[in-house]
Amino acid sequence: MTSTLHPMLNVAIKAARAAGSIINRAALDVEAVRVSQKQINDFVTEVDTASEEAIVQTLLGAYPEHGILAEESGRKHGKADADHLWIIDPLDGTTNFIHGFPVYAVSIALSYKGRIEQAVVYDPARNDLFTATAGRGAFLNDRRIRVSKRTQLKDCLISTGFPFRTGDDYAQYLQIFTEFSQRTAGLRRPGAAALDLAYVAAGFSDGFFESGLSPWDVAAGSLLVTEAGGLMGNFSGEADYLFQGECMAAAPRIYGQMVPILSKYSKFASAAAKNEVATRSNALRQILGIAPPAQAAPAGE
């Protein structure tokens, strides 16, 4: 099947596998990996850096005129004003990795004039390769994948990400958690957004939502979801999500049932909805002794 893939996707796969080899070697002795902390609960390792370097070298070796947006190096590499922009997370799920919890992935997407056209999410622990090209469908290890066929939210397994950064609103998340816990078959927090989205695309879970995400967390996974027949958007259900720090994904009928729950928690919610959520959050903070959220750094670049 490799010969039928888009040439740029083939290069992305080569880059992802090169990074995966670095990650797998390091996983054999994860306690020896040097770890530093970018901010509270936000870690970076020498493996992240080495993986990113391998990816960047592979991509620019094939396409030196392309741009790069990477988690660790930002826009340092590549052509700054290129129409083709590679969006890279060399190790999504670093906290899992440094604890030996085998849920992490390499995420590589190619954007052309703002539209995601190629995507690879590679799980090196399982040797699972998720790929997509715009208009050509989504695949797992050369097998076509589709989103879940479930039609009722009450029957669904939904994945999410728990708050962990400075500035996250724990009281608001408790409200969201309560609403979904009462309306679904279960919530899961695997800890790697790229894999969460890939699993929605493959029908392993029925939906996903999380706030505080950056473009490299969701770019590749978003194309997997849409090419597998799903929908992607912000908490209001609108298509503007890549740089907004909030996203949701699901099969179409489940997506429609998630929007009414999440829309009031969106940055795009009405003033009345925001005031209602804030009132409940303040009450929860008083009951549970939760400090109000500190000012967070903006998501994205």
**Structural class by sheet pairing and helices:** alpha+beta
**In which range does the helix fraction lie?**
25-40%
Shape: globular
Order of SSEs: HEEHEEHEEEEEEHEHEHEEHH
Q: How many alpha or pi helices?
A: 8
The count of DSSP E runs of length 2 or more, i.e. the number of strands, is 14
Radius of gyration: 19 Å
Number of discrete domains: 2
CATH arch. level architecture of the largest domain: 2-Layer Sandwich
Mean pLDDT: 91
Which topology of the largest domain does CATH recognise?
Fructose-1,6-Bisphosphatase, Chain A, domain 1
Distance between the termini: 35 Å
- Estimate what percentage of residues fall within beta strands: 15-25%
Q: Sheet with the most strands? A: 7 strands, mixed
Task: Describe this protein's structure.
The chain has 8 helices and 14 strands. It has 301 residues and is of the alpha+beta class. The protein folds into 2 domains: 2-144, 2-Layer Sandwich (Fructose-1,6-Bisphosphatase, Chain A, domain 1), CATH 3.30.540; 153-288, D-Maltodextrin-Binding Protein, domain 2. The strands form 3 sheets. Strands 3-4-5-6-7-8-9 form a 7-stranded mixed sheet, with helices on both faces. A hairpin with a 2-residue loop joins strand 5 and strand 6 (115-123). Helix 1 runs antiparallel to helix 2 and helix 4 (170-183) crosses helix 8. It is globular and about 55 Å long. It starts with 6 loop residues before the first helix and ends in a 13-residue tail after the last helix. Mean pLDDT is 91; it is low at 296-301.
